[in-house]
Amino acid sequence: MSASICVVGTSYVGLSIAVLLARRHDVVAYDIDPERLDLLRAGRSPIHDPDIEEHLRRGDLRLGVTGDRHEAYAGCEYVVVATPTNYDDRTNYFDTTSVEQVVADVREIAPDAVVVVKSTVPVGFTRALRERLGTDRILFSPEFLREGRALHDNLHPSRVVVGDRGPAGERFARMLADAALDDDVPVLLTDSTEAEAIKLFANTYLAMRVAYFNELDTYAATHGLDTRQIIDGVGLDPRIGTHYNNPSFGYGGYCLPKDTKQLLANYADVPQTMIQAIVDANTTRKDFVAADVLARRPRVVGIHRLIMKAGSDNFRSSSVQGVMKRIKAKGVEVIVHEPELHEEHFFGSELVSLEELKARSDVIVANRLVPELHDVADRVYTRDLFGHD
């Protein structure tokens, strides 16, 4: 049965959910950014995601857009919240202000609507909010998406998890599963706090795997060993496998850095060493990479792309930025090629064309190898072995 749904926020999580559900339901996407809304009205995506772009081009979705919160919420059965919850290092806590504001607005404008929080929140947040407001019409449902492949991951989900075991949670889980292209999608209904923990522990495990293969690579590089031979041998163990094993400059992007820190904060009164080590390992890796680049005694270091991984247009908390800052701190000139930026400088470093980057750089730092750097391969510094993330 069709439902009336509002999705708040049109970045990777929100827009992918909106497009997914708009294939079967009436969906309104609400955002406060007029530029994003103008792009969506024109059938264009404000984020880089080939599947989203294709669906918007086809124009076959039951999808409306608005910047008016009353228009967005009025008459909705479900309001899906996908607003940013950035991690605040001062408070050791996600900034959940935007989520709480949406909940307050929905309770005022559409009090019967069920609010589904897709934004990542601290463990215990949903239960505390329910108790404070005296309502059970707030659910948490974690997302497990890759930037640049968000709609694909919603159409072919590894699992659907909803932190509510009642009818409202069951119906929302069924909407997500029915909108997927795969049959027999695993559906798990849990309590809200367990669902929040699933999200943070899943991302921290992924960060741990990134950190593990990076530290393996650091060991091999320090001892003059062939990293790929070691990884190939380790990966033949079926308990380990050959996936998610490509060395990098560290984990970055919107999710893993902040989710690992939030999980660590949730461990404040619980004995642990591993979660702290995962967070620390990401800093150590960037220290090693920067030192390894500086050992080549370059006068000018070129940074090829600031994005956090291939196929993304996001460079929030990307690991290469950490490497760049460490190199600059040693007084070495750094220039940057990033086509997503149209200014003249990025944090004091000159933004240049690809041709100028190649001409001026003694060393070109690239988190991932790309064909456009093959002609200067002898000057490229990367830890990329497999050509994938």
UniProtKB/TrEMBL annotation:
> Which positions bind substrate?
F144, L145, R146, E147, K199, Y244, N245, N246, P247, S248, G252, M308, K309
- Cross-referenced Pfam families: UDPG_MGDP_dh, UDPG_MGDP_dh_N
Q: Which residues form the active site?
A: C255
The Gene Ontology terms for molecular function here are: NAD binding; UDP-glucose 6-dehydrogenase activity
Copy the pathway line from the protein's UniProt record. Answer: Nucleotide-sugar biosynthesis; UDP-alpha-D-glucuronate biosynthesis; UDP-alpha-D-glucuronate from UDP-alpha-D-glucose: step 1/1
**Catalytic function, reaction form:** UDP-alpha-D-glucose + 2 NAD(+) + H2O = UDP-alpha-D-glucuronate + 2 NADH + 3 H(+)
The protein in question is named UDP-glucose 6-dehydrogenase
Q: What is the lineage of its organism?
A: Bacteria, Bacillati, Actinomycetota, Actinomycetes, Micrococcales
